[in-house]
Amino acid sequence: MIDPYLKNIPDIDIPKKEKGLNICVFSDYNIAGNLTLITSLINKYTIHKARCIIVIGDYLDYAKDIVLIKDPNFPIEKETAIEASEIIRKADFFHIGRRVINFADIDFSKILNRHNCVFKYFGSYLRDNQELIRKFHEESGIHGVSGNDWTMKENSGFMHSHFTHIYDAKNVIPWYQQASDNLKLDPIRIVHSPTNRGFKKTDLFLKIIEKLKKDFNIDLILLEGLSNSECMKRKSVAHVAFDQISVGAFGLTAVESMAAGQAVLCSISNFVESVFPDHPVIPVTENTLEAELRLLLSDKARILDVGIKGREWVLKHCDPIKAVKQWIYLYDLIMNGNRMIENDDFFINT
């Protein structure tokens, strides 16, 4: 049988992969495209080979590798299950998104251990299951990674948290480099993704926007029920973005907006400030959102300045090559323990 880990490797890079690991990226969902993204980065920039298995597909047009359940009304296709099982059996290391789900003859409880995997958690799943997740990691000794959000970390036990979002801003044209008419900021375009209205305080934001429309020419862009590519198309022309008022941490949608040169408003906690004291996000609370928006809309030069600083921040902190290097060294730490690195050759094409 052909090595399933070579399926997505260009012929020119195959000789560079001889000493690398087989890394299986596995998740219930391809959360914001994170799992297929880390897979592609491993294949492109490292000596390792990676395949990605997602249990349940969705309508979003993120990149795909193996999707076990493409339609909930139909069983897993036999050929897909066979290929996925082979990928898992040949894996040296597992990068798990949130949780594992057994299928066919695969029983992850007999496969995973503290030296061959890491779990990466996202948002509400960790917040809603902290006690269960903490118990799992305490009993197994398996490493976990969480976002830089204290509401995820506070009760979930030991978690690595020096990782930020991965985003390639070099592929995004900021609004201020687009059509010259956009530089007039008339109207001022404000974007928001109301994926969870209560959590993000969307209703409060919308009431404030209606008040501000009396004094400013505002074009509100709401992103709901759209594919990722359509979201990015609509988002790309905005000047300002409101993320959320909830947990005090900005998410991937805010990173996307900063990459597009938008001035971002979001609640920011002291924990996030301690991790990223140089972030350019405008901190807001329920009590200050209206005033901060009014100040920003009154100063078009500031919108441009904050937007430029946001893009520079994403280019510096969310660079894909930097991110994949962090992950590869964490894999090495988990497998080999703390050790001194000298002339390592983990990386290619960088």
Task: Please render the helix and strand layout as text.
Blueprint: E1 22-27, H1 34-45, E2 49-56, E3 66-69, H2 78-89, E4 93-97, E5 117-120, H3 123-128, H4 130-140, E6 143-145, H5 150-153, E7 188-192, H6 197-200, H7 202-212, E8 218-222, H8 228-235, E9 240-242, H9 252-259, E10 263-266, H10 270-275, E11 282-283, H11 289-297, H12 300-317, H13 320-336
Parallel strand pairs: 1-2, 1-4, 2-3, 4-5, 5-6, 7-8, 7-9, 9-10, 10-11
Computed Rg = 22 Å
Q: Give a short account of the largest sheet.
A: 6 strands, parallel
CATH architecture of the largest domain: 3-Layer(aba) Sandwich
The CATH class of the largest domain: Alpha Beta
Spell out the helices and strands N to C. EHEEHEEHHEHEHHEHEHEHEHHH
Q: Total helix count?
A: 13
Low-confidence stretches: none
- Total strands: the figure is 11
What does this 3D model show about the protein?
The chain is of the alpha/beta class and 350 residues long. The protein has 13 helices and 11 strands. The model has no long low-confidence stretch (mean pLDDT 93).
